[in-house]
Amino acid sequence: MGIGWRPEIAGYVEHLPGLRFVEVVAESVHDVLPPGLETLLSRGVTVVPHGIRLSLGGAEPVDPARVEHLAAAAALLGAPLVSEHIAFVRAGGVEAGHLLPVPRTRESVDAVVANVKRTQAALDIPLALEPIAALFDWPDDDLDEGAFLTEILNRTDALLLLDVANVYANALNRGTDPLALFSRIPLERIAYCHVAGGSLHDGVYHDTHTAAVPQEVLDLVASLCSLHRPPALMLERDGDYPPAAELTAELDAIAAASGYPAVTR
């Protein structure tokens, strides 16, 4: 069991007894680590840097300086792997400020594969790729999500960061069965999973990370763990942080869905 490390909950995370790993936003890691992260490392808790700005899904090559920063963050943390999104965040020098969905076309597969390989060349540890939650799909896709993701993973030999909340959000917004994706992707490539909450507005589910994990997502976690050995699972929270007891209850609910011990043990 793990949790996303954020400065606002650093004190809480630092003292969780059953915590095995945390994920930190790679772009926030610099030469001097925050004291909370140093304490976790001294406890033997694994810290994984999670990139949000490489733009692996962009048509342009990834920025070498950003790739170097990701590699340096991993080295500083002694991380066993790093992760990033299958998304684009910039084009023509314009920053979107958001993770945007990649068209599921053959050309996009080639672009993502090229950028993943450029990134892997600068790393001496594995890279895990996260499919994002999207509010829309581009028209005229060549591939469904399962085929798109599987081809990228196979051609790059990358690992998979599966966000179970993203699977739920995409299925709800598309009107599809979230369980169907599990049979279309290589579950054996999962490095770890995100679990998070969101909110429904005007019939559209937004993956906000600011609400409690809904029961539907916990049910998906249980289904995933029934199909494949329980992976490492991580609570992702990015605002509206509740009291410590509520965070612990969320972590324990995720653990219960997967069969793991409670984090309070």
TrEMBL record:
Q: Which InterPro entries did the record assign?
A: MbnB/TglH/ChrH, Xyl_isomerase-like_sf
Any transmembrane segments, and where? none
Q: Which NCBIfam families match?
A: PRK05409.1
Q: Which Pfam families match?
A: MbnB_TglH_ChrH
Tell me the leader sequence span: none
The protein here is known as DUF692 domain-containing protein
Q: Source organism's superkingdom?
A: Bacteria
